[in-house]
Predict the structure.
Amino acid sequence: MNNSINLTHGSGGTQMHQFIKERIMAKLGNNILEKMDDAAVMENQKSSQIAMTTDSFVVNPLFFPGGDIGRLAICGTVNDLATSGAVAHALSLAFILEDGILFSDLDKIIDSIATTAKEARIKIVTGDTKVVERGKCDKIFINTTGLGFINEGISISSHKAQPQDCVYITGTMGNHEVALMKARELFDFSITTQSDVAPLNVAVNKLLSLTKNIHTIKDPTRGGVASALREICEHSQCTIKIFEEHLPVDKDVHAVCDLLGLDPLYLANEGKFIIIAPESSHSQIMQAFPQSSIIGEVIKTLTNNKDELLLETISGGMRKIRMLDTMQLPRIC
């Protein structure tokens, strides 16, 4: 009995259709996807604004402490939608599979996708499957597109940060990238760190039901918190000051950074948001994201195009923070 994908599973014939029905549709099916049309037809949600995002996932390894490529694909997509304030509505899902990937691995990934989509309250409404020769793909790559609708009165963007806004991070920094380092056996000491990969869209929906006075939400994935904040400074033409003593870092992540010479500000996250909002929105942010910390503030807008990200160190000094210049770890998402 064949226990792995082969090229006929992408050929358009009987084996491909059987594979899709038995291994994908059986777990991800819904009233739209089960029609198996070439295009998904959905109800109009009567919103004046539509948000759309697309993403591709090539993480290595496929399974890591706290997650896998399937969970990552759903979370990454709904979280990108949530940064605009959109309510996630529908998702496309495309697999590029390597000849030889084990059905047992693929089943685990599809199970994880189904579980995470339910957690994120989003339907997968259309998809695609391609199979390539051995060596032309590393087991599985996933591409997604997400569609969401933005309710009236919501205007959230990396271009909207304002002076005197507070800068929040919704939890500890760097767990995802350190979990991948552990999975790749890049260090030989024991830690308990797991990836923080999680869908945050439901929490954002709760936040925006409590207040619409949110200016910016940003997903600090590749490049970490530092690069995400630096991008906000550039887009909003502002200076942001953050405080070293307020940066939340788990003790294991801190230990790894000390031993390997890494800066947690540049480590990737997959289940945290940067939120920038007026102080008047503090209680609502804490209700929706109880683990949040205020790590800084927007201190001014600019007239000379010199946007800056500043770090006030524990010793009282001031350091300019740049966007990540190099690659700390490839294929983290």
